[in-house]
Amino acid sequence: MGDSSPIKVVFCGDSSTGKTSVLLNYINGSAPKSTKPTIAAAFFTREVKIHERLFDLVLWDTAGQETYRGLAPMYYRGSALAFLLFDVTSRKTFENLGDWIQSIRSEAGDKTIISIVGNKIDIEDLREIDTFQAQDYATNEHCLYFETSAITGHGIDRMMQISLEELATSFIPEDKPTPVPIAITENPQKNGGCC
């Protein structure tokens, strides 16, 4: 990773919503053939350029199982962007979004951009949550909303691009001071000396 701003990004949500598959599709450009449940968390890195500025993404894939849910908040701390996934074929995963949003905001703060992601849109005939219901919910929670399919890859690049552009327009690294312009004037050298 070069001379760029590090950005912590978390993927969270209930178990079996496709967090790992969506993330691996973004990293590798294709869906994995199979995945095992994430234990605690895993992370990946990727450098991206947005609006002529480089960002080092540190992408955290958090476990959704109840057993590991207590660990998740420590991964939210310091995150600038959170992708909160639910399964459009599972009403329960949609109904649990409020708990996840509350946890993210309490640990990461209100400035963290939250993108709610309805995944598994490739299984349309089993769909339980329609687009309008999910979009309305996201708007009311002041979140972005996207729909994806980790299997086909549909919507993943768009989700990442729009979320990262939103982040790039609002991101000012806290650990780097704002540059202050200074004027430099030359001192004419005096005759007879070097200094």
Write up this protein.
- The protein is an alpha/beta fold.
- It has one domain: 3-Layer(aba) Sandwich (Rossmann fold), CATH 3.40.50.
- Helices cover 29% and strands 24% of the residues.
- It contains six helices and six strands.
- Strands 2-3-1-4-5-6 form a six-stranded mixed sheet, sandwiched between helices.
- Strand 2 and strand 3 form a beta hairpin.
- The longest helix is centred in the last third of the chain and has 15 residues.
- The radius of gyration is 21 Å and the shape is globular.
- The two termini are 42 Å apart.
- About 8% of the residues have low confidence.
Question: What brief labels describe this structure?
Answer:
Rossmann fold; 6 helices; six-stranded mixed β-sheet; about 200 residues; alpha/beta; single chain
CATH structural architecture: 3-Layer(aba) Sandwich
Residue-averaged pLDDT = 80
Shape: globular
- The gyration radius over C-alpha positions equals 21 Å
Number of structurally distinct domains: 1
CATH topology group: Rossmann fold
Question: Under the CATH scheme, which class?
Answer: Alpha Beta
The biggest beta sheet reads: 6 strands, mixed
Quaternary assembly = single chain
How large a portion of the residues is in β-strands, by DSSP E?
15-25%
CATH superfamily, please? P-loop containing nucleotide triphosphate hydrolases
Strand order of the largest sheet: 2-3-1-4-5-6
> Which ranges are low-confidence, i.e. pLDDT below 50, for 5 or more consecutive residues?
36-40, 64-69, 174-178
Considering DSSP H and I runs of 4 or more, what fraction of the residues is helical?
A: 25-40%
| Distance N to C terminus | 42 Å
How do the helices and strands follow one another from N- to C-terminus? EHEEHEHHEHEH
Query: How many H/I helical runs?
Result: 6
Structural class: alpha/beta
